[in-house]
Amino acid sequence: MSVRLLRKVLKEQEEHRKLADHDLEVNDHESDFPLSPSPRNPFDLLDDQGDELDAAGETSEGDVDDQEPPVVKSSTKELPLPNHKPKKKKKKKRMEEDKTSNENKDVNSIDAILESLSIDTNSSNQQSGFIKAEVENTKVHNNLVKQCKSSVLLVDPKFLRAENELRRIFGSKVVNSFENSHNSGSSRQMRGGRRGSHNPRKTILVAPSGHWPRWDGSLSMELLESKNGVHYFRYLHLTSYSQAQRAFEAAKAIHDLNGIASILVYHPYHVESLLTIAEVLKFSGEHQSSADSIGKCLYALECGWHPLFSPLQGNCQLKYSHDTNKPLFSALFAHMQNMDRRGCHRSALEVCKLLLSLDSDDPMGAMFCIDYFALRAQEYAWLEWFSEEYSCDNSLWLFPNFSYSLAICRFYLECESSSEDARMETEKATSEDLMKQALMLHPLVLKKLVAKAPLKDPAWTKILKHAFFGSAVAGSPSLDHLINIYVERNYIMWRFPDLQKLLRDAALQLIEMLDHNGSDAKDWACVRKEAFSSEINEYSHLLVSDFSDSVPTMPPEDMQHLMIDPRMAQNVQNGHHNANPEEATRAPREVMNRNPVLVFLESMLPWVDYGAAYENNELDGHDEWNED
Predict the structure, then answer these.
(1) Which residues of 37-62 are buried (b: 16+ CB within 10 A; e: fewer)?
(2) Residue 303 lies in a domain
């Protein structure tokens, strides 16, 4: 029992005891003074105090049993004076006796209460055991929180949005003025379309614009399983989204981009259609409109998240093997590229960490650009921590990008650290040693960097004439592909004079060392062959152009046949959902080398895909054309 409750019980018992004593005293007083039919004189009330004091004095002097009953005095002359000193002493003595008796009664009442409530040692042990269990649970929870916070892939939401980074770079006034001008332009373009404003849901990936349509709730997510504290999820398509998906597949099969754009008229948050429109707008030079389409994708995908899906903590997985999960990876990768082109490298780094944490298999190749974003964001300490803590099949420093980026990272940390810190970190390798290791492991990188950057110092011509660098080969298709990705992604870093000096000095020292002892080159060649022993390109799904800052003006081969009416794309992008889809689909289609019957059927029902079944003359296992 708590002390507060015990005091409350004692206080209530004390009040009951006082009431009982008062009733007993009143009854005794009434028995000593018999009732009279005549009303009592109000001045007789003054006799009560005197009678009580007299009774107290007589009780203190003699025995109570030997005393005679008191005699009622009718005269008021014998009333005791208020300032009579002997009476005060008797009153003080009476108060001390009452106080002592109250203390004894309190002790007795406490014992009685404890006995009545059965508060013994067993109950106290149970209570202490419960408290210990609560403490242990609290410790386990705190440990989980610490482990979550210590994860190298923990995403910081305040650095996730590009708008916040732009405010840190340019100031709030500049960014707010730009946003106001952009919103006013969008509102002018919205005239003639659907009116009415609404407050979109707040999301963490993007900041939704006020002219975006309402979220239609066509996407959801389900929890598949939980293993070792990791939750696995998968996106689900509702009925309306499945219908839009079938129409998208039919339009995609005949390379009809106008049909894809018409899907967004009725389904403005169909993710695959938005990704396709964003890709076309990017190749046409409309980068801001392309970024808006990607933002709508991320907004729709985030609105469909499961309540337990918390990707920022690194304990949620969305496997790329599920087809419904693939659009999120494509949208995040395109969003990361857009932020990189805007100069928001810190935000791009957070998105890259999010991509890597969603699927440990890294289907988008986030591992081969995360070092670049960390260097551009000046997160040197985090990059070293990541290379040490992140678990992978091979050591990260064996990859071309990490072998060179860790040397750059150590170089900038050495420049930032003081002399005392440098003495404390003597155990770590210097930037020159790391750069020589990178050149020994991947000498082909130097040759391609000199051509790509380009590096025009005459010293590079002398260095490349050496046999070790001049005859350098990758020796593996996978390694050659990774080197091309690194050079395309990170070549701009080597335009800085201090890094060029670091690379040149390390190369000259390496040449001098190899002239005295050439056996080290063979040892590093064995390490390279052991790390990349596959005879096939394991990273062929990663396009080198996806890691480039420059955007080609011509679309890739799989998009060259896509045709779209510019008015339709502009209406869809500006939110005009009252456009007539019949007028939008009047553009010519690619019908060369195709069955005319199929073209006729698809022109009548463009949302049905007849191609795969009728081109093979099969439909549910029957030959329909031969039967006719």
Answers:
(1) eeeeeeeeeebeebbebeebbeeeee
(2) yes
Alpha-carbon distance 607 to 252, whole Å? 10
In a domain, 323, yes or no: yes
Residue type at position 612: A
Look at the chain and report how many structural domains it folds into.
2
Coil, helix or strand at residue 230:
strand
Residue 223 half-sphere exposure toward CB, CA atoms < 13 A? 12
Nearest to 469 by CA among 491, 450, 486, 454: 450
| Domain annotation covers residue 87 | no
Q: How far apart are CA 493 and CA 22, in angstroms?
A: 95
**Sheet order of strands, 230-237 included:** 219-227, 230-237, 316-318
Residue 321 located in a structural domain: yes
Q: Which residue has the tokens 């030997």?
A: 66
* Whole-number pLDDT of residue 596: 57
Instruction: Read off the pLDDT of residues 435-450 as tens digits, 9 standing for 90 and up.
Output: 999 999 999 999 999 9
Say if residue 373's pLDDT is above 70: yes
Q: Flag the least confident range among 225-229, 318-322, 522-526, 582-586.
A: 582-586
Per DSSP, the residues of 323-337 read GGGHHHHHHHHHHHH
Q: CA separation (Å) from 373 to 164, 231, 351, 584?
A: 17, 28, 10, 41
- What is the DSSP-derived secondary structure letter of residue 73? P
Put simply, whether the predicted model's pTM sits higher than 0.90 gets the answer no
Look up the domain containing 232 and give its range. Answer: 153-183+198-365
- Among candidate residues 335, 365, 395, the one where a domain is terminated: 365
Helix (H) or strand (E) holding 351: helix 345-358
Euclidean distance between CA atoms 220 and 242, whole angstroms: 12
Q: Are 277 and 258 in contact (CB under 8 A)?
A: no
Task: Encode pLDDT of 510-569 as tens digits.
Answer: 999 998 877 788 889 999 999 998 899 999 999 999 999 887 665 555 554 454 444 444
User: Under DSSP, is residue 442 helix (H, G, I), strand (E, B) or coil?
Assistant: coil
Question: Of 321, 338, 365, which closes a domain?
Answer: 365
Torsion angles phi and psi, residue 317, rounded to 5: -125, 135
Query: Domain of 356: which CATH number?
Result: 1.25.40.10
Identity of residue 54: D
